[in-house]
Amino acid sequence: MTQAEKEQDNGKEKEKEREKDKEKEQQRGVKRPIAPPAIPEPLQEQIQSNFVVVIHPGSRSLRIGRATDTLPVTVPHVIARRHKQSGQPRYEDAWLLREGLNKPESKEQRQNGLKMVDQAIWSKKMSNGVRRTPVSAEQARAYNCQIRPAVLDSSSRVKWTNTSHHPSHLVGEEALYVNPSDCYNIHWPIVRGQLNVHPGPGGSLTAVLADLETIWSHVIQKHLEIPLKDLKYYRCILLVPDIYNRQHIKEVVSMLLLNMGFSAIIVHQESVCATFGSGLSSACVVDVGDQKTSLCCVEDGVSHRNSRLCLAYGGSDVTRTFFWLLQRAGFPYRDCQLSSRLDCQLLQHLKETFCHLDQDISGLQDHEFQTRFPEAQALLFQVRLGDEKLQAPMGLFYPTTFGIVGQKMTSLQYRSQGDSEDPHDEHYLLATQSKQDQSSKSAADRKAISRPGGALDGEMSGQGGIGELSDLPRGCGSSSGGGGMQGEMELGPTRSCLMGAEMGETSICSPLQENCNHEPV
Is the model's pTM score more than 0.85? Predict the structure, then answer.
């Protein structure tokens, strides 16, 4: 017998012995250990960046695009809706006009603010060490009053939006160029970073959400070339202001998920996203928008609620102030009106072209601009300007130059008021937390209140030390609080301070200034 045959026989004998052992174990009732079931690892779905849509709604512009796009698509955040009945009164949201401008104290307040601006400009030396030579508005006015426009073309080649097919709505640039004689209402769905809810036509929360859905859907279809039926394959990133209304954000998220059909959504704050996009872990973010200026401190990707501040003025107020300064200097385009959409566009363009904060540019300088309006000639104007180009943007640091009286100008964030549809809102968390946690937080609140807070020019005295459970008034009736959900989802309403003639004493300096020695007005 060969060696291979011997090994084969030995293997058969060993198998027979194993089978006998198994039979004996079964007879004795011995159970073999059960191997634990193999649990497969959960599969992580890989998210493709080109299937992520980023939406950044603003008061004047809507920025939207894929996460892979280098630059977003920017369109005017406006919609024109056709009247449902003939003879319906026409309604249009204001662009540059706002409440508090036509008060008896507005003119005096503007003059006082302009004096402070002139003093600040004169006190700052130029880079060569020489002080600027002040230029009065009368010097420019003497020249500008003699200017007559030159006709460039008999036709401006700018036309009104064609509404012969009676579209139910128009979005963006088409809405801006709707003929005032057509039966359309003009709506801006966001004002000063918040939903434009008002008692007028189209001012209900449902109507504003419908405007947002229509505008965003139109831009996604036209500019991003994404069919609405395919949004179920896309995810959405929604950027919201640092100070926001929780209930409004909840309704917008429901609209994006249920009405528009996005598969998922994440809501994040503008300041945090700005630091992330800049590659910074910590920063003090100052966002000067069209209608608001927000300040916030971000540390390690977290927006500190106690540092959030929203000032209710921005680029549109600079534009309006620049127009006032142009009128003082004899603006040659004398038919310009703040109530006209096209004139507001022109003023916006002039501000972006001429205004600056360069101290080295001084003296009178000649400029020119064109006007191109539908059904009108294309005209060329010459204008001579001095310090007006620097005075207008300086209004951001001296907001009394804007002439806004009796309006709420400063907003803070405080704790959410709860939501009846949220079973785990802050009221539930407060009621279910332990007594030890409540006592420790109350002690922390008392310490925070006893500490002197850093005041912002008399309008935010006691801002420091905002407690988690406190809702106490702080300086000018402002209130703030802590709490919130991880991921910056404490979307609460705001309380604000007053600026203007309704206060007994109002500081004439900006909250952005420190160590101000000016006397109250």
Answer: no
